[in-house]
Amino acid sequence: MAYVAYTDREHDFAHPHSWVTKYVWSQDHKVIAIQYGLTAIAVGVVALVLSAFMRLQLGFPDTFSIITPSEYYQYVTMHGMIMVVYLLTALFLGGFGNYLIPLMIGARDMVFPFMNMLSFWFYLLSVVILMASFFVPGGPTGAGWTLYPPQAILFGTPGADWGILLMLISLGVFIIAFTMGGLNYVTTVLQARTRGLTLMRLPLSIWGILTATVLGLLAFPALLVSAIMMTLDNLIGTSFFMPALVSMGELQEHQGGSPVLFQHLFWFFGHPEVYIVALPAFGIVSDLLSVHARKNIFGYRMMVWAIVIIGGLSFIVWAHHMYVSGMNPYFGFFFATTTLIIAVPTAIKVYNWVLTLWQGNIHLRVPMLFSIGFIFTFIHGGLTGLFLGNVVIDLPLSDTYFVVAHFHMVMGVSPVLVIYGALYHWFPKITGKMYNATLGKFHFWLTFLGCYAIYLPMHYLGFLGVPRRYYAYEGIDFIPNSALMLNTQISTAALFVAVVQLLFFINVIWSLMYGRKSDPNPWGATTLEWQTPENPPAHGNWGKELPGVYRWAYDYSVPGAEKDFIPQNTPPRPGEKIEF
Amino acid sequence: MSESVASSPDELKEGTSGFTQDWSSDKQTFHAPWGKAMMWIFLLSDTFIFSCFLISYMKVRITTTVPWPNPSQVFALEAFGYPVPLLLIAIMTFILITSSGTMAMAVNFGYRKNRKVVVWLMTATALLGVSFVGMQAFEWSKLIEEGVRPWGNPFGAAQFGSCFFMITGFHGLHVTGGVIYLICIILKVRRGDYDRIDNYEAVEIVGLYWHFVDLVWVFIFAFFYLW
After folding, report:
1. H helix intervals, A192-328
2. If you measure CA to CA, which chain B residue comes closest to A265?
3. TM spans, by residue (chain A) (predicted)?
4. What CA–CA distance (Å, rounded) separates A175 from A89?
5. Contact at 8 Å (CB) between A564 and A524?
6. Cβ neighbours of A151 (radius 10 Å)
7. Which of A141, A354, A500, B171 is close enough to A163 for a disulfide, judged by CB 3.0 to 4.6 Å?
8. How far is it, in rounded angstroms, from Cα A185 to Cα A214?
9. Does the distance separating the beta carbons of B60 and A240 come in below 8 Å?
């Protein structure tokens, strides 16, 4: 076979010559990944501060006169949107996707590095546009992160004059950025693997990122279309989503639009979006558990198919977010059924993680702690998802703190724990330095337990019927005083956890400056990114020759082997039969 | 921007076993250069954009409170003193489909490395595309003269104008972008870039995009003008 990998032809491969092309306008996937990661974390810190403001208001009402009801709604909205789209999506796919894909599949870079670079700069532009909305008259939009019309664009909603427009434009730019990156990730995984690396030998991280990217490429169009339609409704007075209505005593000029249509479009994006965030987390956590338990992942093929099936099913469950929207009630039956079916592959994954740990040689290093913490929070959030997936149970729980607790456990805390685990895990590879393990362990325990202190009581608030997105709760008869006290406790815990995150930043900065030099493969991992000739990997990743792959990614503690791991690029020993 | 893949045909299996062979192979899943694979994936994503537009349009049309205008009346054109329904749109559709034909021929001549003919055929494609956009501009201005606006029109539901301008506008942008893309590739073909690397895949890739835009038009035509 006359297969010549494009990236092996040196003359086609643009080597950077100056500091600017090396670190700013870089086409190197590793630099782009770090740029993506730093931007996402920076914007995530903004969202974290916003949530701290929200908790200050809820925990200590009437204390902080600087937080007005309008601002409270703006914090809610921006916190949600930033966390889901600009932090989690960008960090998992733009950050980890960019860093890990070429390294784990033995490629020198993404297939179209220039487009990859553009992807980051468009992402940065979308972040700048979003942040600009804090400084325009009226401030950012306060429509809730779901941006439901009609209220999102009516006067009376905070940010109706500029904020909502900037939000929609920013989302549009983000989608362009994501598409450019996403096309690269999918094409790279499918078309640029090194010799010997079949799809069924890919590490699960790559499977998770690949499937999530495909979901993104198919789900973001719905958001783009709804953003375009809402921009038109807002700017030139069309009525796609706007029915005839009276707002602030005045009859609006809109008529005949369908607000439910927006919800369908939004959640056709919104539900796959949950899995765009979750699937990379699933994949990465599988690899972390396997490496630090020195044991192969349990049921690799099952894990791959579970990822793919979850990805497929995620497109036909969206209306479970809309049980109380006024859509045809019979839809509830269909969407509740599909929602509960999705629990099956998800449960398979959880069982397999636990079975991977079973009789493993568990090293409780920082990444492992975060991974095991993820299993707890994910089971927790997953089980409450079963409650909310059932129409009859969802109806009374809709728009209460139970929902807030559920999605923060399953989609907030769980992926963030994986992100931390992954950052600690790959920190030695990305920087070449070792982090401070003690500080990392403090960071884990305080974050993990702190998150339970925040979200467990919220379930109880939800059962009491405490509605979410309220600025203040005084004088509502059915909410007992104890609930307000609980809010104070939750806020205290939330502020504590927010401050604890400083430990991570201190650790990173300290380790970059004073950390000891790390081994090229400190965890004894099998995957290709740990087998690079240089640590951290140089531009082009592999030196003269691409590595060949002879086995799957999970040869840990193989009986008869020299060490307790066999890297993927180790040729078979004499007489060894390789099944994968 | 491509790698040469020269798996001899006898290695490749047909049917289901070929499918299995592709997906269980190393190095690459599809026997296609990177650019082509990426264009296919992009088109899949773009399909979802247009599907969302068209499904939204259907939903809006069903739920609107005022009757929908009769498209064959609105889009009628006066010819020889008689109103002919869908006359302009029929011509536009014919032009766009013809451009797909010239594009397909350009791809074919590209693989025969016939640079001159490729340039001519692609120029014809681009010109047909431009005339399509021009006729669309004519159609828009005619409707605007008759009082059709995105926010309202004299014939019925306001959403008629909203959907019409949004969807045909978005498609028109795709055609315009396609023409620009075509021009870029034409210039490179003329300059002999693809002769130098002995590879006309770029022509096929722009062809994929162009055919896709035509196909989308057929759906817009069917759902918007014929319904």
Report:
1. 204-235, 259-292, 300-313
2. B52
3. 36-58, 78-101, 113-136, 164-186, 207-232, 274-291, 303-324, 330-354, 366-388, 400-423, 444-466, 486-510
4. 11
5. yes
6. 16
7. A141
8. 9
9. yes
DSSP B225: I
Flag if B159 and A256 touch (Cβ within 8 Å): yes
β-bridge pairing A250-251 and A246-247: antiparallel
**CATH for B50-226, among 3.40.50.150, 1.20.120.80, 3.40.50.2300, 1.10.10.10?**
1.20.120.80
**Residue among A382, A398, A388 at smallest CA distance from A465:** A398
Judged by a CB distance cut-off of 8 A, whether residue B29 touches chain A is yes
Q: What is the pLDDT of residues B113-169, one digit of tens each?
A: 999 999 999 999 999 999 999 999 999 999 999 999 999 899 989 999 999 999 999
Give the ipTM of the model, two decimals please. 0.93
Q: Between residues 146 and 165 of chain B, which touch chain A (CB distance below 8 Å)?
A: 150-151, 157-159, 161-162
Q: Is the pLDDT of residue A1 over 60?
A: no
Query: Residue for token digits 């809006």?
Result: B60
Residue in A4, A111, A256 closest to B157 by CB: A256
| Contact criterion met (CB below 8 Å) for B93 and B217 | yes
| Contacting B residues, span 163-192, partner chain A, CB-CB under 8 Å | 166, 170
Encoded amino acid at B106, one letter: A
**Alpha carbon distances (Å) from B160 to A238, B149, B165:** 10, 9, 9
pTM beyond 0.90: the answer is yes
Q: Which of A3, A218, A236 sits opposite B48 (nearest CB)?
A: A218
B60, B64, B160, B205, best to mutate vs chain A, most A CBs in 10 Å? B60
- Any bridge partners for residue A386, and if so which? none
Q: Do B45 and A3 touch (CB under 8 A)?
A: no
Q: Where are the domains of chain B?
A: 50-226
DSSP output for A455-485: HHHHHHHHHHTPBSS-S--TT-TTS-HHHHH
Strands (E), B71-167: 77-79, 82-84
Largest CA distance in chain B: 66
A417/A88 Cα distance (integer angstroms): 11
Distance from C-alpha of A437 to C-alpha of A367, rounded to nearest angstrom: 10
Q: Is the peptide bond before A221 cis (omega within 30 degrees of 0)?
A: no
Whether residue A261 and residue B59 make contact (CB cut-off 8 A), yes or no, is yes
**pLDDT per position as a tens digit, A401-459:** 999 999 999 999 999 999 999 999 999 999 999 999 999 999 999 999 999 999 999 99
Enter the tokens of residue A343: 């629990």
DSSP 3-state assignment of A246?
Answer: strand
| Interface with B, mutate which of A187, A231, A268, A325 (most B CBs under 10 A) | A187
Nearest CA in chain B to A262: B56
Tokens representing residue A523 in the block: 């965890």
**Nearest-by-Cβ selection for B34 from A191, A225, A236:** A191
Please give the Cα distance from A193 to A101 (Å, whole number): 9
Are the C-beta atoms of residues A210 and A304 closer than 8 Å to each other?
no
